[in-house]
């Protein structure tokens, strides 16, 4: 495993710790994904989350119906218009998630050192001695001594709402388990997780396909989070399914790594996926707790070197019910940034948490502080070394733009792009200043109608660390035939000034195509 310790080598001034954090238009270079739900679906709350730094809205289809999520999305659209802040849409599939069904809705108390039966017969009522489940193959998948976890909020680590079972015996289709801790389960559905056992169910379920082909297509989702990704073939299968849904093939697929299978096949999954989400709650059950950080560091490093966005989950669970994170959680967020995370994903904290806006704001502030002590010089050298020689043309331009920007202490890098690839390559080298990605729409046709591309590319970069997109006027060409065409550049500079990133007398590095050549130029601004 490659070591990737990125704290600054020189000592940090102790006095700087006492200085208050400075407010900024960009709360942090690291992006924040917020899960929208019961506590965060009003126009007012979503607007405040966007202002606080949320740039991707996650819709979790492991619960809630299409109508509920559609209503939430309409509120998001209203909030985006009122705040004038772009926001990407992420659809998170339910995947092959095992569940206990409690049709009575009465709380179920489970006592330690007693036994409970897991049965696939969902017609039976859930009791303290019997729990119906939605999977007929559990008895064939487990053996005596295996570990099973059950809970409504299973992966928060709260032992009053989740229970740890040990398989005692298998009787036909039923599984008899010994209860290891007392807990009370409330609600209608509880997640069931079997540690280190393969569940013979498709990664993209029929329910997932229905949601994608209806709600997903209707709303042009930007990112598909593929839950329980276990093999590269899962990504290929999902991409094939999306390709049959018209223009939906533009949607990026992020692999959600949640178990030992996904970890084992991580390298091949990374080759196929557009990005990776590390579901640390689930991984923390499949892996011994002392091993989770090792996988995080090794996997984030691999994502960084390939220039693919990496998203870390489960960072400030305590903020679901509290206004402040624990000291350990705050340190964990900072370490995720130093390890190379592109984004932090907030789940229960914003979905059902009491303080969704404060959570987004707090995580953004921690990320911003961690970025100040990120060793960009060391990271840059490692990335260049990993790319090797000879570099590709685009890679050479991207690394040169970042090197120039750092040497001249530029306040921003402006990159003109149509596909978004050039801007993502620049962001791969983790410049210390924002990368303003000017996405130039292209006119395209399916032989029935003409449309402009660009909106997808702009929104999809909202999950990439340090990349801040703007959609340009389609009448402005991305490729100038001469150096005199500066209309798009003026728009980009004005955008940077309006957002407070660019000030008079600042230097700005511009990455642009002139005819057949790609150029990097340094501008020194006047008043």
UniProtKB/TrEMBL annotation:
InterPro entries from the UniProt entry: Pyr_Knase, Pyrv/PenolPyrv_kinase-like_dom, Pyrv_kinase-like_dom_sf, Pyrv_Knase-like_insert_dom_sf, Pyrv_Knase_brl, Pyrv_Knase_C, Pyrv_Knase_C_sf, Pyrv_Knase_insert_dom_sf
GO molecular function: ATP binding; kinase activity; magnesium ion binding; potassium ion binding; pyruvate kinase activity
Pfam families: PK, PK_C
The EC number(s) this enzyme carries: 2.7.1.40
Keyword check for Transferase: yes
Location of the Pyruvate kinase barrel domain: 30-360
Pathway(s) where this gene product acts: Carbohydrate degradation; glycolysis; pyruvate from D-glyceraldehyde 3-phosphate: step 5/5
Catalysis: reaction(s): pyruvate + ATP = phosphoenolpyruvate + ADP + H(+)
Cofactors demanded by this protein: K(+)
Keywords: ATP-binding, Glycolysis, Kinase, Magnesium, Metal-binding, Nucleotide-binding, Pyruvate, Transferase
KW ATP-binding (keyword) present: yes
Residue ranges annotated for the Pyruvate kinase C-terminal domain, each copy included: 395-514
Annotated family: Belongs to the pyruvate kinase family.
The protein's name in its UniProt record: Pyruvate kinase
Organism field: Gossypium mustelinum
């Amino acid at each position: 495993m490659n070591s990737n310790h990125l704290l600054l080598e020189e000592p940090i001034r102790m006095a700087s710790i006492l200085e208050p954090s400075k407010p900024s238009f960009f709360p942090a270079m690291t992006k924040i994904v917020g899960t929208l739900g019961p506590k965060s679906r009003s126009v007012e709350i979503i607007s405040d989350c966007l202002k606080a730094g949320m740039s991707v809205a996650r819709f979790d289809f492991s619960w809630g119906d299409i109508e509920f999520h559609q209503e939430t999305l309409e509120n998001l659209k209203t909030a985006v218009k009122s705040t004038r802040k772009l926001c990407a849409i992420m659809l998170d599939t339910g995947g092959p998630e095992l569940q206990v069904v409690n049709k009575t809705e009465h709380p179920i108390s489970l006592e330690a050192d007693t036994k409970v039966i897991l049965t696939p017969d969902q017609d039976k009522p859930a009791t303290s001695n019997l729990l119906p489940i939605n999977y007929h193959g559990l008895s064939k998948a487990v053996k005596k001594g295996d570990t099973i976890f059950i809970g409504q909020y299973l992966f928060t680590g709260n032992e009053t709402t989740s229970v740890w079972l040990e398989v005692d015996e298998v009787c036909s289709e039923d599984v008899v388990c010994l209860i290891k801790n007392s807990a009370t389960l409330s609600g209608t559905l509880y997640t069931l997780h079997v540690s280190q056992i393969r569940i013979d169910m498709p990664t993209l379920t029929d329910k997932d396909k229905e949601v994608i082909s209806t709600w997903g297509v209707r709303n042009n989702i930007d990112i598909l989070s593929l839950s329980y990704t276990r093999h590269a073939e899962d990504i290929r299968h999902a991409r094939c399914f999306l390709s049959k849904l018209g223009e939906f093939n533009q949607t990026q697929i992020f692999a959600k790594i949640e178990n030992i299978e996904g970890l084992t096949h991580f390298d091949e999954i990374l080759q196929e996926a557009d990005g990776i989400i590390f579901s640390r709650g689930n991984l923390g059950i499949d892996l011994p707790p002392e091993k989770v950080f090792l996988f995080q560091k090794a996997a984030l490093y691999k994502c960084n070197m390939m220039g693919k966005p990496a998203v870390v989950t489960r960072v400030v669970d305590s903020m679901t019910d509290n206004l402040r994170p624990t000291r350990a959680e705050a340190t964990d967020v900072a370490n995720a940034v130093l390890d190379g995370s592109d984004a932090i994903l907030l789940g229960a904290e914003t979905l059902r948490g009491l303080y969704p806006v404060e959570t987004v704001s707090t995580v953004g502030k921690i990320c911003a502080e961690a970025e100040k002590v990120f060793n960009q010089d060391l990271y840059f050298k490692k990335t260049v070394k990993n790319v090797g020689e000879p570099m590709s043309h685009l890679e050479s331009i991207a690394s040169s733009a970042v090197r120039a920007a750092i040497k001249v202490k530029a306040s921003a890098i402006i990159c003109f792009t149509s596909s978004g690839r050039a801007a993502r390559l620049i962001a791969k080298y983790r410049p210390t200043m924002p990368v303003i990605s000017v996405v130039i729409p292209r006119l395209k046709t399916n032989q029935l109608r003409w449309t402009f591309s660009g909106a997808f590319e702009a929104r999809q970069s909202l999950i990439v660390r340090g990349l801040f997109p703007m959609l340009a006027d389609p009448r402005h060409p991305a490729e100038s035939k001469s150096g005199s065409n500066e209309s798009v550049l003026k728009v980009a500079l004005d955008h940077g000034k309006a957002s407070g990133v660019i000030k008079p007398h600042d230097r700005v590095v511009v990455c642009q195509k002139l005819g057949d050549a790609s150029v990097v130029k340094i501008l020194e601004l006047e008043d």
